[in-house]
Specification:
Blueprint: H1 5-15, E1 19-23, H2 27-44, E2 50-54, H3 56-62, H4 64-77, E3 82-89, H5 92-101, E4 105-108, H6 115-136, E5 141-146, E6 155-156, H7 171-181, E7 185-188, E8 196-197, H8 206-216, E9 220-222, H9 230-239, E10 241-246, H10 248-264, H11 271-274, H12 276-293
Parallel strand pairs: 1-2, 1-10, 2-3, 3-4, 4-5, 5-7, 6-8, 9-10
Bound molecules: glyceraldehyde-3-phosphate and zinc ion (ZN).
Length: 296
């Protein structure tokens, strides 16, 4: 019997490990992520929980109903702890649609709004998630963020405009935000950025993570995982991070693998043949990340 996502997160918190959250745009990325996760678990003799994320754009591309069916199919047929998250959704209506369609968790991203408006929108999502959870005997988790960390999962020349020491999450704001909204998970700004900097990502502010965890007292989610050093990941987990998001590294693996396949076999026409390399390379990225997040 598969535990709920909330239970897996609690378990991660107490074991001081983190659950990997990986974004997908298509079937190949899902296959690669699932393969990577299964590989780690098979060597250990247990199934490692994973979260699959789709942003609004990724969800539109796959199709909202299809992505729910894909994840449920793995969870129910393979009895595998895989969960679906609505990653960075910007309105109540898009969050509601995900909840209604069967997502396990949602992230309302209202960081660009003034704090009180962010609180009001987040609260609306929390209230709806609670109402549906009760009515349908589900346990839908709501995550929200304060403090800016940029927006795109891509290769960056420089730190995106608008990210400064000032836009890091303040521990007292985190405490207030969690109390006011009743969210289940908090995504702070602690030196992390969405995307990968060409010259290497900055170090995380580990003391800030610890202070936020102390004040917020709920599980923390580290976004912008691509490009963060192994040492910083471990320190961040020890300081209170329970979920880590990776997207850019998967996108890079996918693109480079397809370029390599087509370069090596320019006459290959069957997608299921030249895409196999992409699945394999994504599974390698995920295996490596899961090993680290689980301190293996
Ligand atoms: O929500 C998605 C992420 O936070 C991914 O960030 O592209 O830097 O790995 P990343
Ligand atoms: Zn993110």
């Amino acid at each position: 019997m598969i535990k709920t996502l909330r239970e897996y997160i609690r378990e991660a918190e107490s074991k001081k490990i983190a659950i990997g959250h990986f974004n997908i745009s298509n079937l190949e990325s899902l296959k690669g992520i699932y393969e990577g996760a299964k590989r780690v678990g098979e060597k250990l003799g247990y199934k490692i929980p994973i979260i699959i994320g789709v942003s609004e754009g990724e969800e539109d591309f796959i199709g909202i109903n299809k992505v729910v069916v894909l994840i449920k199919e793995i969870r129910e047929n393979d009895n595998y702890p895989i969960f679906l998250n609505a990653d960075h959704h910007y309105s109540f209506s898009s969050i509601k649609k995900c909840i209604d369609t069967g997502f396990d968790s949602v992230i309302i991203d209202a960081v660009k709004l003034p704090l009180e408006e962010n609180i009001a929108l987040t609260k609306e999502c929390v209230t709806y998630a609670k109402e549906i959870s009760k009515r349908e005997e589900r346990d839908i988790l709501v995550e929200s963020e304060i403090g800016f960390i940029g927006q795109s999962s891509k290769i960056l020349e420089k730190i995106p405009d608008g990210i400064t020491e000032e836009t890091k999450t303040k521990p007292e704001d985190a405490e207030y935000f969690v109390r006011e909204t009743g969210i289940d998970l908090l995504a702070p700004s602690v030196g992390n950025i969405h995307g990968m900097l060409k010259g290497g990502n900055p170090n995380l502010d580990i003391d800030r993570i610890r202070e936020i965890k102390d004040k917020a007292n709920i599980p923390l989610v580290l976004h912008g995982g691509s490009g963060i050093s192994d040492e910083d990941f471990i320190k961040a987990i020890d300081a209170g991070v329970s979920i880590i998001h990776i997207s850019t590294e998967i996108r890079i693996a996918y693109k480079e693998a397809i370029l390599e396949s087509l370069n090596n076999n320019p006459n290959e026409l069957a997608p299921y043949k030249y895409l196999n390399n992409a699945i394999e390379k994504i599974s390698d990225v995920v295996e490596k990340r899961i090993r680290l997040f689980n301190k293996l």
